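Q: How would the structure tokens look for this protein?
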Amino acid sequence: MNDNIHKVTVEIFGETYCLKSDTELEQVISVAALVDSRMKKIAHKNLRLSPAKVAVLAALTIAEEFLQLEQNYKQLIQMVEEEKY
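A: Here is the predicted structure in token form.
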């Protein structure tokens, strides 16, 4: 069992969540703030969307950014590896 489990209460899109994580506390708070920010931004542009749809759209945009960063990282690693040889 991990003794470094952090508990934190965050608010995302008006809902309170009590989270447990072995990730650094600041990271958990940052992730929650990012999700909250994205949901608010999407909701502001699409006033008729339900909170569930806002959450899915926020997840999709964050996942898209993650995949793009992952692809960029792999390309960068490949370029570095090619420079070595």
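The helical segments are 25-45, 51-84.

The longest strand covers residues 6-12.

Upvote if useful.
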